[in-house]
Amino acid sequence: MVDRMKVNGVELAYELTGKGDETVVFLNGIAMSIVHWKPFADALGAYRCLAHDFRGQILSGRPEERYTLAGQADDLWELLKGFGIRRVHLVGTSYGSAVGFFFAFAHPDAVASMTVIDGADRVDPLMRAAVEAWRAAALASPTAFYRGLIPWTYSASWIGKNEAFLTEREAAIASFPRNYFTAFASLCDAFLELDVSAELHRITCPTLVLEGGKDILTPGYGRKIADAIAGARFATMPGAGHAEVVEAPAPIIAEVRAFLAGLAR
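RESULT FIELD:
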C-alpha cells in the first residue's frame, strides 16, 4: 500500500513492507516508480523493504525547482528518520544508484551495504546526448518522450517480445499531467551534473555492482565503479538492457539475495 510523508517540504510517496530487523531501500531509475520494485520486495520478505518515488517522479510531489542528486539523498535521510531507521542496505539502479552514492558520502555509517545496478560515476558525451534528447522530448511530446526512452532502456530481444506492453505503457504516459514532464526535465538536469569519479573511494561498505550485458547507456561503468570501491564484487547480467530490474528481475534478485545472505555470515 502506497503512503505519503512530507519531507523537506515535499510529499514523498513510499511503500514500506515486511517486518525484518534489517531494512533494504530500493532507489528508482529516472522513469521508474515504486511498483517496479514489487518483485524484489516480495522476494526479500525476510527484510523490511522501503521503496519511494523521488521528488519529481510520478507519485511524489513535483515542485518547480532545481533538483539535485544530493538533495534526493537528503530527502531519503529525512524519510528514514521519520521511520526511526538508522541503517540500511541500498539497492539502486541508474539514477537511483547515483542518489545512493551521495547518500553514502553524506551518511557512511547509515549504509550497511550497497548494490549498484547499471550505474555510472560520471556523464560521458554519449550519455549526455541521450539524456538531453530525453529531456527535450519530455518537454515536446509524451509520445516522442516514451519512444525515445525505449531503445536506450531495453534490450532488442525484450522489445520484440513486449510490443503490446510498450504500446499500453505509451498510452498511459500520454495521460500523465504536464508537470510530470517538466519535473522529468529537472530530474535529467540533476543527473547531467553527475561526476563522482574521484569520490568513489570514500565508499567503504560492502558493495555489489551489476551491469546488463546489453546495456548501451552505461556500458563498462559497472567494472569501473567496482574497481574504484575497495572489495566491491562485480557481475554481468547477460542479455539484459539498461532497465534490467524491469526486464529481467529474477537473476538480479538472486544476486542481491546471495550478496545480503553472505553479509549475514
